[in-house]
Amino acid sequence: MGLSRKTFCLFFLFLVLLTNLELIPPAKSAPDNTNLVYKGCAKQSLSDPTGVYSQALSALFGSLLAQSSKAKFFKTTTGSGQTTISGLFQCRGDLSNVDCYNCVSKLPILIDKLCGKPVAARIQLLGCYMLYEVAGFSQISGLEMLYKTCGGTNVAGVGFEQRRDTAFSNLESGVVSGGGFYTTSYESVYVLGQCQGDLGSNDCGDCVKSAVQRAQVECGSSISGQIYLHKCFISYSYYPNGVPKRSSSSAYSSPSSSGSGQNTGKTVAIILGGAAGVGFLVICMMFARNLLKKHDDY
């Protein structure tokens, strides 16, 4: 009888441990750098009866991909004359060479899948982008806005906009001195900015300044936002409970509207786990008491 009770105690302990493991909230995974942000596909398709454009485009993609394991930005051309195709890729400045290559390697496939073979295309992922254009394609201003997204939660009236604008001011000066990529935070507002790799310092500063102005107008008091211009982009996020420690893969993690959710989960897990543990000890003590009582009866 004692053996069966001992076995029951061990089994109950196993259940307690299993319950505690299930109650612990899983670690929040970092956002995937290869998530699609936006696509831009020219309406005009390539007229390519001889396949010369396809060959030049394949060569271009191969050249860009080969460089992505050792550089964050690369621009080149393939073909000749009317069949010349220029293109480039750029990775976010905080990505490692391995992460950059993994990101860029997705882009040629996505361009073909999402755009086909137009005369120009651009695909922006969370961690990198690639674009190409055939000779003669009409150029657009480097300050033209390609895409924006603004967080749905507004925080007006709590001094947020003043803190955000101070962070923006630091970003504008930092991105120039930082070689075209810069991140910083100010009073729980995290900002990031990057210019296209071949943009000069003055043009980079002007581009980021324009993006900041767009963010202020377009996103207003939104808790987060991303503004993509043709030659640069910026993002910002407000963290009410303080900017978390970041890694290269978490530069765009979305701020939580309240940091209490995860802490509440941990608290519940501790309380329930503690209650289960106390219950386990009480049951085992009762079993031990019964065993001693029977031993005394003999």
Automatic annotation (TrEMBL):
Biological processes, Gene Ontology terms: plasmodesmata-mediated intercellular transport; transport of virus in multicellular host
Entry-linked Pfam families: Stress-antifung
Domain of life, source organism: Eukaryota
Assigned GO CC terms: plasma membrane; plasmodesma
Gnk2-homologous domain sequence ranges: 34-137, 142-241
Cellular location(s): Cell junction, Plasmodesma; Cell membrane
Spans traversing the lipid bilayer: 268-288
Primary location group: other
Membrane topology note: Single-pass type I membrane protein
Secretion signal, residue range per the UniProt entry: 1-29
Family note: Belongs to the cysteine-rich repeat secretory protein family. Plasmodesmata-located proteins (PDLD) subfamily.
Protein name listed in UniProt: Gnk2-homologous domain-containing protein
